[in-house]
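Standup notes, structure subgroup. Blocker cleared on the coenzyme A input:
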Amino acid sequence: MPDMLVKLYALPDGNPDAVRLREQGVEVRRAIAPEKYLVVEWVRQQFNQHWASECEVSFTRSPVSCYVAIASNRVLGFACYDATMKNFFGPTGVAEPERGRGIGGALLVATLQAMHAEGYAYAIIGGVGPAEFYQKAVGAALIDGSTPGIFGGMLR
Ligand SMILES: CC(C)(COP(=O)(O)OP(=O)(O)OC[C@H]1O[C@@H](n2cnc3c(N)ncnc32)[C@H](O)[C@@H]1OP(=O)(O)O)[C@@H](O)C(=O)NCCC(=O)NCCS
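Run returned:
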């Protein structure tokens, strides 16, 4: 699984998907510390222990480096940055029944904009699954020779 590079300085302004989702009752925003136990447990149940561990670390950052999509007091998706490595985006995920509504894209853009605001010029998407999603949503480019990257030899 290769890494990808995103030009944060070339991101378009605004987050039209997040605006549209808000009209549909879905809020995309930075998580806050009291939500840690709920969000981390949600990530564990929906995805896996590794991602839950990374998400937990994102709650130790200041500001919290985790964004969530929520509706009716329910988590629909999450996206982290600066979890395993500084400058890395991820992990991210959307609940299966909610996919294809723009939630993953809105979380991605909100998180990358936050990284840019914190002073990064580029973001690295670590160990990508759906490269096409990142390429289409934010013009991410594969980094040559980045497999297995920082996750090589990880305990499983
Ligand atoms: C990847 C993921 C976060 C995308 O979330 P989502 O809410 O479905 O994404 P969006 O609705 O914003 O999709 C944006 C676009 O990317 C495309 N896309 C989404 N997932 C894709 C995938 N796996 N492969 C290729 N394209 C994908 C969509 O078709 C959509 O294109 P469109 O605008 O032309 O319709 C979600 O599929 C997911 O949680 N997957 C499992 C976890 C995962 O793989 N996380 C990433 C690890 S690097």
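Discussed briefly. The mean pLDDT is 97.
Next: hand off to the docking folks.
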